[in-house]
């Protein structure tokens, strides 16, 4: 295992009992163990650290990157955290405590304080010498931050590529990329950081407070954040609260808590569907044939609403749309919904006609009116579903909720109730004087 790469060791440790995994880590050379603990894929890292002898754990933590240590300390028990922090060097301990103060999912909470910086008086040659000297102790050296020697404020950012290609005797500032500085505030959301890195094709973004660089967020930190954010959104789409732990590690009662509340809320909402059907009990008694198409009507409206919701949540997350664009989306979804509804309505009419002519089912002498009812109702329901599904993310974001909460089950439940009202309203108009 000693010759294996760190990610492969991580996979092996994840499959081991905790006590055995601790023994393996302690058996590795300190530099190797630190490399393994620094890997983002390692599970139960806080429990592994808690089960180690305090002195051994402190030595390994001292060699890890600051952001990873902060991640570990966020998960360990308060008593263990205090004890381990006291064993670290005073500067390292103060640094970790500062990182722990930033709210979760902000730039400050995922940044590392181990970055390469040089004064603006340095030449390219001096900067390269500096990089050779500190390379092993920095998170990345692909971006070097040039600081004012007096105020320590950020002047320029220099990429390693431009540095290597520059004149060795030229001032380091001269090889910096032209243009304004791309920086982040400590409280900037991690999704906004990801957009900055993607937009400007960066490997790291400096986190600046009062003009000074206090840390950097690297692209690998952002990738980890994106994976976690995407996982939470997918879980919300399914109609449940987000889970932070691997599926097999979630306890029974925690799983009930995460899923039960949403299921109860959706169940209570679906009871409105039963109430709506009770309101049309008389129509159902007169035209039982209408009940055959209720699942078709409800699913079509819910599916169109879920499609629109998924599209809009993604567009809002990527900042392709702003809240002020709601009316543009509405004007776009109404004709889209009408066209999609017409398409489904025609399919429904053709299906009923074929079944009637081929003798698969006898819808009665007024089968053509029934087909018309289904076709017209589908147009209205699909259009309403598309409009509702596209507007819900805007409404939720406007009142301060995560748009991902407009999950497919929630939209489907809302459209189910209104779909029944539209269906029976259309039936009352078309079938009045015949079946009704």
Integer tally of domains: 3
How helical, in percent, are the residues?
Answer: 55-70%
Oligomeric grouping of the chains? single chain
How much is the radius of gyration in Å?
A: 30 Å
What is the N-to-C order of secondary-structure elements (H for helix, E for strand)? HHHHHHHHHEHEEHHEEHHHHHHH
> Segments where pLDDT lies below 50 for 5+ residues?
none
CATH architecture of the largest domain: Orthogonal Bundle
The CATH C-level name of the largest domain is: Mainly Alpha
- What is the CATH third-level topology name of the largest domain? Tetracycline Repressor, domain 2
Q: How many strands appear in the DSSP assignment?
A: 5
The fourth-level CATH homologous superfamily of the largest domain is: SLC41 divalent cation transporters, integral membrane domain
Which secondary-structure class do the elements indicate? mainly alpha
Number of helices: 19
Q: What's the end-to-end separation, in Å?
A: 77 Å
Taking the sheet with the most strands, its summary is: 3 strands, mixed
Which strand order spans the largest sheet, edge to edge or round the barrel?
1-2-3
In what range is the share of β-strand residues? 5-15%
Mean pLDDT across residues:
85
Overall geometry? elongated
